[in-house]
Amino acid sequence: MQKKQEASALTFGEFFRQKRIALGFTLRSFCERYGYDPAYISRIEREILAPPEDKEKIQAFAKALGIREGKPDWVTFFDLAYIAKGKIPADITAKNESLKRLPLLFRTMRGEKLSLRKLQQLIRLLNKS
To answer: How far is the C-alpha of 55 from the C-alpha of 97, rounded, in Å?
Structure first.
């Protein structure tokens, strides 16, 4: 049996599917229980459709999946929803200081070499989180 992927390495659709299956629901039984269209949920799980823009709809999904507000999975669920939509989470965009550091992160992710000073700066920023 394949090991479960770490939540942070999953996509929104994969995380959604894992949570649904962990509750013992088939796609159809989940949708019947909570009044969702199976084709719609299937498209979200297969990442054909992005998660809805409406925060209340995402909250309803989270609650149906047994994800409790204030728990780490709640934050992960919403972060993955933002990522799936190609957006930065609202609580991060509110911190303008963080946004100024994104080019440094992008360069690092692209594999560009950093000077020792820039690397130390990145480490300090990560430790502040």
So the answer is: 25
Q: Quick check: is 1 in a domain?
A: no
* Residue 45 near residue 17 (C-beta atoms within 8 A): yes
Which CA distances in Å does 6 have to 12, 27, 43, 54, 116?
A: 12, 22, 22, 26, 31
Tokens 């054909």 -> residue:
48
Please write the tens of the pLDDT for every residue from 51-70. Answer: 999 999 999 999 999 999 99
What is the Cα–Cα distance from 11 to 23, expressed in whole angstroms?
19
Tell me the residue range of the domain where 99 lies: 95-128
Q: Residues of 73-105 as b/e, b for ≥16 C-beta within 10 angstroms? A: beebbbbbbbebeeeeeeeeeeeeebeeeeebe
According to DSSP, residue 74 is labeled: H
